[in-house]
Write the structure tokens for this entry.
Amino acid sequence: MYKQFNWALLIFLALSIAVQGCSDDSSTLDPAGSGGGTNDDGWSTQVIENGNFANGEINVSVDANSKLHVSAFNFDAGLQYFTNKSGSWVTTIIADDTGNSEGVLNDITVDNNVNVHIVYSHSGGIAYATDESGAWIHEDMWLGGAGSCTIVSDGGGNLHSAFDDNTNHDIRYAYKPSGGAWGTPVALADQWTSSYCDIDVDGSGNPHVIFNFSGHHNLRYASFNGSWNVSTIEGSDSYPYEPDTGWTPSIAVNKTTNTANIAFWNKSDSLVQFSNCAAQSADTVKSAAAKWARPCIALDNEGYAHLFFEEYGTYILHYATNKSGSWIVTPLTAEIGSNKLAVTIDAGNMIHLIFSSKTNLYLYHTTLQL
């Protein structure tokens, strides 16, 4: 794992079916009512925190007990950690806002022992924070350029991180064995600037990284199985580097098939697209995706994909899934804040969406039982 709507009103969503087109079928879903609760279509929403979650990143991880762990940047407070593992939402400040936007870029994961691990950007590089010892411990994972940063835990409690070193123009990968220390990050690609990356692991604990390159405008996929294999899956490696595709990718790996499922925005053609890295070409999930779309992806217990994305400029949240065999897209009349949102699906097959409202900039949690 999607700004301005009135939470005192019901939100009506029009259902459009997008394979290569759309229909006028409609439904009245309410994923965000002001008072919380569940509506007739199963959506349930609550406020996590009143604050200014306008532009900072929001990320979420779910533990084995289906409890949530959220990292989100609040411009009124700094980088915050939220969890509902006690039954109600509890907040911890991870990095105070000292005016340098420390923690604007961040990610979170929780291991099998419900230890929390967070990576975040600061002026000197990438920092790492964990509560594994019982108290929050902070350290620098990388002293160099700071950019997009991601983290995931595998089944053995080992940590995997990918990040954009925007000073040296590298995409780097770092590994921390369970109970050990971070190793020296390795470069997956160089001369890459202002890249956005995401990471996941397969059923064998091997990392899969997806990242875009704003210089070549293409999308690259890196996977490890004894050695790294890096390939271009969308766009061109040759000048003039057209089309301009592969922006803002998100990845979810099927732990049974070890297949990487990727959602991304194709800027040239204004498309939200999906690739499983096995097909010859990507699916078009939604065409005419205005300006800037940043899709977030999660897989359900049957391996079907669920995408959430906002169309920047319209601020409308969309929900898409291929569970029926073809892509069905549900556009929400809700307006979401700054394209920052996150999604996960728990062991009980419940969707958890974390996002901010354009109207009040608060942080919200919405669920839907599949």
Q: What stands out?
A: Confidence is low (pLDDT under 50) at residues 1-30. The radius of gyration is 19 Å.
